[in-house]
Specification:
single chain; seven-stranded mixed beta sheet; alpha/beta; binds 5-S-methyl-1-O-phosphono-5-thio-D-ribulose; four-stranded mixed beta sheet
């Protein structure tokens, strides 16, 4: 394990009477834990991004549901408040559905560790896509913080680094909440992986200068046809990558695939408070966008590397 290996339980865990999470709003300046003592408090932590990233919010919701069961809360109300905390990542509802039949702490813990295992498998599959000396660009944070451990897109990068294939990572700062410059850079720094933060608007320029070999991102929801929702700005990166003939890879567990949503246009896109963007003037703040399947070179899940047509190649079944 490298010095930067965040343990799953340091990111989120269930203790006696509380879900405890590393407060991602305070990183990288402070490593503080937040205690949530009811399902509603876990939902508030998810809504305010104390815990964020599609798989991690699913895991936090699973622990929140188990906590609600232990406390004797109304489980239908607990399900609703958790499910409604954020709309785009399908992992949230997926995890809650997985918990319904067995709302125990052990079930939540198993689900958590299964997500981390999925990340390690994805890393192995994704690394095989990298050539020697790869300079990769990533957006937002799809690291251990976002998955409950190891990471999806960052898991692919760390595995490629261990395999001696990765030379450098360009980290989009990821406006407006800076998940790239605060969280991904913090994780890469701890792992000892060479990287540099760039303004989001610098990505196409770097591509034009031959400084990027591939783009690797996570996803919050992948529709049945392979359209993938991810942090706002991902779609623009995919357009720029296509223009420059660069591969664009999405790395996400099967818990992020939503076979019930046929195409990206049916994915609900969260709109957050404009004040996250600008406190003085009117602002519009969509948190996600949808990258059409035709711009995605490959989708990597724990089951392997999937290529178009995704309606045929994507796995449909999740075993938590
Ligand atoms: O708003 P956030 O920080 O929850 O957005 C997270 C992302 O967009 C991640 O890229 C996505 O959840 C994949 S995380 C493995």
């Amino acid at each position: 394990m490298g010095r930067g290996d965040l343990t799953p339980e340091s990111i989120v865990r269930l203790e006696a009477g509380a879900v405890v999470l590393l407060d991602q709003r305070r990183l990288p300046d402070e490593e503080l834990e937040l205690r949530c003592e009811s399902a509603a408090e876990v939902a508030e932590a998810i809504r305010t991004l104390a815990v964020r990233g599609a798989p991690a919010i699913g895991v936090a919701a699973a622990y929140g549901y188990a906590l609600a069961a232990e406390r004797g809360e109304d489980l239908d109300a607990a399900y609703r408040v958790l499910a409604e905390s954020r709309p785009t990542a399908v992992n949230l509802v997926w995890a809650l559905e997985e918990m319904r039949a067995d709302p125990t702490p052990q079930r939540a813990r198993d689900l958590h560790l299964a997500e981390v295992d999925r990340c390690r498998c994805m890393g192995t599959h994704a690394s095989a896509l990298f050539g020697p000396g790869t300079k990769a660009l990533t957006h937002c944070n799809a690291g251990g913080l976002a998955t409950g451990g190891y990471g999806s897109a960052v898991g692919a990068l760390r595995r490629a680094w261990e395999d001696g294939l990765l030379a450098h990572v360009w980290v989009d700062e990821t406006r407006p909440l800076l998940q790239g410059s605060r969280l991904t850079a913090w994780e890469l720094d701890a792992l000892g992986i060479p990287h540099a933060v760039i303004a989001d608007s610098a990505a196409a320029h770097l591509m034009s200068r031959g400084e990027v070999d591939c783009v690797v991102t996570g996803a919050d929801r992948i529709a049945a046809n392979g359209d993938a929702a991810n942090k706002i700005g991902t779609y623009g990166l995919a357009v720029a990558a296509a223009h420059h003939g660069l591969p664009f890879y999405v790395v996400a567990p099967t818990s992020t695939i939503d076979p019930a949503t046929p195409t990206g246009s049916q994915i609900p896109i969260e709109e957050r408070d404009g004040e996250e963007l600008n406190t003085r003037f009117a602002a519009w703040n969509p948190a996600f966008d949808v990258t059409p399947a035709e711009l995605i070179t490959a989708i990597v899940t724990e089951e392997g590397v999937h290529r178009a047509p995704y309606a045929d190649s994507l796995p449909r079944v999740v075993h938590a």
